[in-house]
Amino acid sequence: MVKNKINLNQKLFAYFFSLSMLTILVLSLYSYFSAKNALMTRTYEQLNSVKFEKQQNIERFFNDRLNEAKIISNYNNWVKILNVLALFNDGKTPEKIIKSSITEEYNLHLKKILDNGCYTSADIQWQDLKINLNISDKFNEQNIEFSKICRKEKTTYEINASDDIKFIESGINKDILIEIPIKKDSSEKIFIKIFLKINMSVVNTMMFNTNKMNGLGETGEAYIVGDDLLMKTTSRFKENSANKIQVNTAGVQSALKNISGTNEYPDYRGIKVMGAYGKLNITGLNWVITAEIDTHEAMIPIYTLRNSIIILAIIISLLLFGIVLIISRRISSPVIKLKQAAGYISKGNYDVFLEKTSDDEIGELTMAFNEMAAKIKQQTKDLYDERSKRMTSVYDGQEQERQRLARELHDGLGQRILAIKMQLERLDNADAGLKQKLIDDAKKMLASVSKEVVSMSENLMPQVLSEFGLISAIENLCEESRNINGIKINFNYNQIPTNCSRDIKTYTYRIIQEALTNIVKHSEANHAEINLTFENNIINLSIADDGKGFDKNNIRSGANGINNIRSRTEILGGGFDIKSSPGNGTVLNIFLETNNNTNFDTK
What we know:
Blueprint: H1 8-73, H2 78-90, H3 95-114, E1 119-126, E2 129-134, E3 144-146, E4 160-161, E5 166-170, E6 175-183, E7 190-198, H4 200-207, E8 221-226, H5 250-256, E9 261-266, E10 272-279, E11 287-294, H6 295-298, H7 300-346, H8 361-425, H9 432-460, H10 463-468, H11 470-485, E12 488-493, E13 496-497, H12 502-523, E14 527-535, E15 538-545, H13 560-571, E16 575-580, E17 586-593, E18 600-601
Parallel strand pairs: 12-14
Antiparallel strand pairs: 1-2, 1-7, 2-3, 4-6, 5-6, 6-7, 8-11, 9-10, 10-11, 13-18, 14-15, 15-17, 16-17
């Protein structure tokens, strides 16, 4: 199964686009959560501010009522009022006169305190008598009600105020009252209690505000909860909620433990809200105050920001898609062209040139590739020319060898065989003595032909090389050259492996034979030296003479001897070096590599 290859363009696009998307994602998430945290912090600060403001107003309102209660408790004319009430006890004074007296006393001394809209009624409890004063702008004797009449003897009184003034919740409706105890004398026994009923509509007005600019928006509200977990003020969402709705939220529970703070929790409706909560400091009342707003409304700006970030991220992603696509193609295009050009070169097409499109590393790589292609082309041409020269040298050598063999066969063997044929033809007409002489001459001539055939075969493949080894063959070659040409030749060698390849033996022999032939024909030398050594699997051959030398830079193309030596050396994978200059002789250095280092030839 062939796997789908992912090209460079696709990889670059994937890397760049993934990195860009990761950057966008990180920035978007960072922006979103930073904005969310900032918005939540601001919302909690705003809720705290609303809660603090309303807490201050409520506590100030109840503290003002306490101050008013202290003024009332220290009122000096309570004795007078009680004496008027005593008249009611004797049964002689008409009720109308008593009510008129109380009304006059209220209007003169208490109206300025109680007639401020913060109270709905006032009750005076004296012994077994209870007077209810319905406070209104038109207070008169018709507003006074006696709940019970006691008949007691008239006495005189000394009134002492009590410091134990507090707020209490009373009755089924849990009305909020200020209890003002007044003592008859310096004893601890309370003689009179005054109860002022707080007008909770004033409190509701301070707590309930539907203005959107109040910091609570469309779903926010502030309310008070008592330790009975009942809402004490009006709910924004439910009518007649005072003392009817149970509020058992996490914020209320924390505030009742005297812990102020902010948090996110479900409210009394089960809706998730953000709230600020704390405890009210009101004598006698264990109340807490909370300011809350629906989380959804508070988070609308962050939801809008989230949607904007998503839309912006999509737009940026589309733009990046196009930009990254263009950039990846621009980067990968030169590399793809280099790959295609390399494919052309691998197929033998060296006429490749790439245009440089940039001054960066890609441009430098393109120029280097063009230089490489040009060098490969030139080296290929040089190699082809060299190969052609070698082949020409081989063919020329073969042709020369054929011509030499033809000449030898024609001039030597051919003529002798013809002479033998003519000698044998004379046998038909010769007498017995002449026949014997002709036969003896023919035998001598055949022996000479046989010797010449052996000589020719040795030139083609020396018998001594196959029978006695490389060293003996070279020694024999040197001996023949000394005897025939008179040149003094020294041959030095060390251990040479006997079981090296036949090609190495034959080509080494032919190289030395060719070199000696060149020395004899061209060098005019008196002395030559051949050194053959073996070390580290390398056969080193050095052939030097003291002849006239030559300029190696002017070797003619027709110098087949040197070319034959070079060709044979390179066929074996060896190295060839020639050193020569006019008047200084010539030195050939050749090395041939062999993997054999055993069975050395010492002779």
